[in-house]
Amino acid sequence: MSKLAVIRLVAAVALLSAAISAILAAGFASPAAASPAGWSSGTLIDPIAEELTSVSCPTASFCIAVDYSGNAFTYNGNSWSSHSIGTGDKLLSVSCPTASFCAAVDFSGDAFTYNGSSWSSQSIDAGNILESVSCPTASFCAAVDYDGNVFTYNGSSWSSPDRIDAGYNLYSVSCPSASFCAAGDNNGNVLTYNSGSWSSPRSIDAGGGGLLSVSCPSASSCAAVDGKGNVLTYNGSSWSSPDSIDASGGGLNSVSCPTASFCTAMDSNGNVLTYSSLLAISTTTITSVTANPVVSQPVSIGVNATWPNTYSGSSWSSKSIDAGNILQSVSCPTASFCAAVDMSGNALTYSNSLTPSGQVTVSDGARSCEATLSGSNGTATGTCSITEQAASNYSITASYPGDANFVSSVTSAPTSLTVGKATSTTALGLSATKVTYGKEGAAQLSVTVSPQYSGSTPTGTVTVKQSTTTLCTFTLPGAGSCTLSATELPAGTYGLVATYGGSTNFGASTSAQESLTVAKATSKTTLRLSAANVTYGHEQAEHLSVTVSPQYSGLRPAGTVRVKQSTTTLCVITLKSAKGSCKLSAKRLKAGTYRLVATYRGRPDFKSSTSAKKKLTVVK
User: Fold this and answer.
1) Is the separation of the CB atoms in 250 and 228 below 8 Å?
2) Neighbours of 62 (CB within 10 A)
3) Residue 155, SS3?
4) Domain count of the chain?
5) Domain match, 91 and 210 both
């Protein structure tokens, strides 16, 4: 049974009212059971008249509903209370832009205004039925009647009638602002008001049973519904063709659109229709990602799953929320709250109180983590971490499997994640800080390359150098140490550093300089005489040989050895393979007994040494 059949056939009003009362008495007076997706069960707020005709809610904590017996009912966010407007006639429409101002119209052409505490009345259309009123502000309202007239309110008084739709019954008007309104009539015509003037009637729904309700959140967005279950939408310049969204056959009595992305419509069979499923839709989004992450760093990813109630642009959903009753009017100040009234005296409210629960899976295609959701009022959030093992670009998606109230959803597009190289720290260790030339292998060089974050192992090569001289190179992962050769470095003090060359996943790094001292090796000088006695004038017969032995075998000290008798140098021997020899010259020494010594002066890598004294006698 449509709104058209209920209140618009003037000749049948009394009979129809009696028929409705009889039907309700027969078993349809009780409201439907608790309904899904945020709609409450019907609350009987009008047990006497049982014919609520219109409701208007500027906020979720304030609504006013009116009935067929001239009563008004106020909702404070929790409960309803009733009061009389002061008319015994049938109130057909109410509009409240704020909690301190409302306007209502009735079956006898009277208009009523509410100032937050009391109602006042004015007869503006005697003898006609005022069908609908819309007030975007307390200083502008538009009301339409059953004879094609429109009346405007300026904050203190109503205008005279303006015939804009001669010969037709205007059923509904909606004004999002004082400069734009849209009205629909019983013949499927729509009229628009732009900055002071109304357009001519334009047929958009011939044969649709009349445009019973229109709602415009802005001058560029409207939705209208008709008596045959069709919806038509306006984009600011043109209207769409009728789209059948309600196959129940009850006819759509009311529509409310707080925004261009959300609308709710009611029919005569207790069904609510919205631009999105009241139960099933969830939206999953990635809300945050750790900035500039690197390899092996846990990447914190924040997600949420929400109940958006958004319009897909093409489809409506339908839910039964008031079975057996005629839903007459609906008002939604936001996408998260609506109030509806039926012809059995029941009021129903919708609140976006359901919140997705469970877990959202975050994935890069290879790795994933689970974010446990928590939240309220339709939005749940969670966080989990993914640790990437390679520097690269990743595409992060989030998917929600749904729960008892929500179906699954996935992110509409992946989120790009760039993981950079991790830094590295290279440490060089020496088993000994001082070694001797010829036995430098006693010092083992060990290297450790540590990643910025645990859980990954750097690869590549490490080079240990003294200045520009490479001492050893090794490959990671694997042995992180090396040993110097016996004579790797000359005697001296050196600063050694280890340099990691980096890889695709790790940046290069250099150790702190470690000091290594290579001490000179000791030496031992030996002097030999070919004869202990020589004759004066024939000293050249004496052959002097020297050997310089190193501290460690395998070395060959070089340099010179000076053979002396007291302070007199007898000869200087240049070593070859650590050995050498010389002969005395004739008459070098006078007849007598001498003690000869050989002194090795040393080299950068060897300490000096002096042989034991050898006795030489020169005879006459």
Assistant:
1) no
2) 19
3) coil
4) 4
5) yes
pTM, full prediction: 0.55
pLDDT tens figures, 251-269: 899 999 998 877 889 999 8
**Count of C-beta atoms within a 10 Å radius of residue 23:** 17
Question: Which residue type occupies 553?
Answer: S
3-state secondary structure 490-556: CCEEEEEEEEECCCCCECCEECCCEEEEEECECEEEEEEECCCEEECCCHHHCEEEEEEEECCCCCC
Structure tokens at 26: 């027969």
Whole-number Å distance between alpha carbons of 142 and 131: 11
335 with 407, same domain: the answer is no
Q: φ, ψ for residue 486 (rounded to 5)?
A: -60, -35
Return all residues near 480 (Cβ < 8 A) that are at least 6 apart.
Answer: 446, 447, 448, 449, 462, 474
DSSP 8-state class, residue 442: G
Q: Identify any residues that bridge with 381 across adjacent strands, giving them in sequence order.
A: 304, 374
Q: Which domain holds residue 612?
A: 523-619
Q: Of the candidates 464, 497, 519, which is a domain's last residue?
A: 519
Span 463-522, pLDDT tens digits: 999 999 999 998 998 667 889 999 999 999 999 999 999 999 999 999 999 999 999 999
**Residue type, position 354, single letter:** L
Clarify whether residues 327 and 433 are in a common domain.
no
- Give the integer Cα–Cα distance in Å for 91 and 48: 15
